[in-house]
Amino acid sequence: MAPMNPQGPIDTLDEGALKELIAGELGAVRDRSLGLTTEVLAEDDLTGQVSPLMSPLVWDLAHVGNYEELWLLRQAAGREAMRPEIDDLYDAFEHPRAERPTLPLLSPDEARAYIGTVRAKVLDSLPAARFDTADPLTSGGFVYGMVVQHEHMHDETMLATHQLRKGAPALLDPPAEPLQKPAEGSAADEVLIEAGPFQMGTSDDPWAYDNERPVHLVDLPAYYIDVEPVTNAAYLAFIEAGGYDDPRWWEPAGWEWRNAGGKRAPAFWHREAGQWMRRRFGRTEPVPPGEPVQHVCWYEADAYARWAGKRLPTEAEWEKAARWDPAAQRSRRYPWGEAYEEGRANLGQRSLRPAETGSYASGGSAYGVRRLLGDVWEWTSSDFHGYPGFRSFPYKEYSEVFFGPEYKVLRGGSWATHPLAVRGSFRNWDYPVRRQIFSGFRCARSAREGR
Predict the structure, then answer these.
(1) What percentage of the chain exceeds 90 in pLDDT?
(2) What is the pLDDT of residues 273-332, one digit of tens each?
(3) CA angle, 61 as apex, 60 and 64 as ends, to 5°?
(4) Are residues 261 and 313 in the same domain?
(5) Selection from 142, 151, 154, 255 nearest residue 207 by Cα
(6) In terms of domains, do 156 and 184 share one?
(7) Strands across the sheet containing 283-286
């Protein structure tokens, strides 16, 4: 995958540079999609369903092309529909994942040909596109950014499907790259975030989604938040202390979930010869103690936090720790500044796993909180809802239909998330029982609770 724009934030580029960036990112995300599907798997693996939670991979592949045709050819370029008869098949709201294998889907060869034709037409229409318009769909290239981010999100979903696959590995571990270590003496477990208001959300990021908008002032009391995500070693202490067997730590619905499924550890963990092992993309290996725990649901994260005498941070607490610069009295786009910089976070599928504790120290926030972007999605205690003044755009089905107490907010992205598809204001959400996603957490506590 090509790196993001090295020249600075997207909103600083002129139209020519922005089009060049868009063309490059369209190519990079398509290479990633094909590298997760037709280039590594046989037809049976692409058309089969590994879990009712996931679509067949061939559905995801054709869906990203259909979405691209809808928004970049029909909406942005005003072109005629290419395959209107397949729109219903690839509408995520028309058919739940469990029933998608029964649909008359395009074959892998047909899907690849279709998305290739769509892409060729998009690139052909790109030179004539106008980004300096009053139309919010095209202003700043928003609709192109939306399509690129959408495909990267589906690539992360495809990775979750790969993790659920049985059989021989289809993905190779990339070579390990040197990771940045913390400076001497920076071993605090948690940091104090002082009381006061901060600017939450965004109004000026041209590719931000509707649920990230608008920027608004939130006043928080003082609190402590963990410097790093909770590790496998720390979570193992919870398991060995009987955390899965003590209802004191569990929400009633979580205790019911634990009992119904007999859960005793994160997803993909098992005991073998007295040692905890995990299955990772078809490989069985010892659970690495220093990596952030992943594949835990919200109920597990919440139970651990209670056991540890803490709690999950609210969404606002997470964002203040990640973005607020108290000296400058403003929020940053990324924890470290306004522009994305390589080497500051474990993002973009550079590895197929989270990094060890202490890595990527240069990606810390103004408060010294580390690894807020990348490694694992972090559960928060907050339900998903719109910000004050929220306006649905460009369609209600992206955010608004999910608002409510059924979904919990996750923040920060994972090792599988591409940098274009995550920033300090980005919001993800899922059911509190979900574990196939690359989810972990960090803890917080109110300052008034004392040390």
Answers:
(1) 91
(2) 999 999 999 999 999 999 999 999 999 999 999 999 999 999 999 999 999 999 999 999
(3) 80
(4) yes
(5) 142
(6) no
(7) 269-272, 275-280, 283-286
How many structural domains is the chain composed of? 2
Note the pTM of the prediction, 2 decimals.
Answer: 0.95
Instruction: Count CA atoms within 13 Å of residue 365 on its CB side.
Output: 31
Boundary of a domain, candidates 164, 197, 214: 164
Q: Is residue 123 part of a domain?
A: yes
Assess if residue 398 is contained within a domain.
Answer: yes
User: Which whole-number Å values give the CA distances from 132 to 10, 11, 208, 209, 414, in the listed order?
Assistant: 14, 11, 17, 19, 33
Q: Which of 164, 195, 219 is the last residue of a domain?
A: 164
The phi and psi torsions of 365 (rounded to 5 degrees) equal -85, 180
Question: With contact defined as beta carbons under 8 Å apart, do 22 and 140 qualify?
Answer: no
The verdict on 217 and 80 lying in the same domain is no
Does 196 lie in the same domain as 115?
Answer: no
CB 334 within 8 A of CB 202: no
Per-residue pLDDT reduced to its tens digit, 218-265: 999 999 999 999 999 999 999 999 999 999 999 999 999 999 999 999
